Amino acid sequence: MSIAHAVAAAVSFTWLGMVIAISFIEAPLKFRAPGVSLQTGLSIGRLVFRALNTVEAALAMVLLVVLVADPPSPTVIVAVGVVVVVLAAQLLVVRPRLTRRSDLVLAGPAGPHEVDQPTRRSPVHYSYVGLELVKIAALVISGAAALAGA
Fold first, then answer.
1. Is the separation of the CB atoms in 125 and 146 below 8 Å?
2. Is 63:83 a contact under the CB 8 Å cutoff?
3. What does the pLDDT look like over 1-29, one tens digit per residue?
4. Taking a C-beta distance cutoff of 8 angstroms, is the pair 34, 93 a contact?
5. DSSP designation for 108
6. pTM to 2 decimal places
């Protein structure tokens, strides 16, 4: 196995761990902590996901550079391509919609005639979770295939 392929595997599995830890452990648990309001949880979530997405973009760049430097198998290339496309969809399509929705909650009601704030998850939230699941599968495949040299 080349150093580039080992780096690709390490980056894939590091990224995988970050997504699982933040999206599926930290994010839902913060809303169950005593004393954490919806507004506080959303504010924390925005900061955490902004940081995660920044690191994800950097990891995507590392993977792309490594793949260009020493092209691996088609399996790794396709899996990394899926990861990059999913991340782009999350950043460019889904996150802006989630941000607009959380802006409404964080702003609070403007007056007695204000439309009720959203109180349940939107379909956009579920699309983000669905994309996270696709990203997880693609990261597992890219990491395993890079390790196996497949």
1. no
2. yes
3. 799 999 999 999 999 999 999 999 998 88
4. no
5. -
6. 0.88
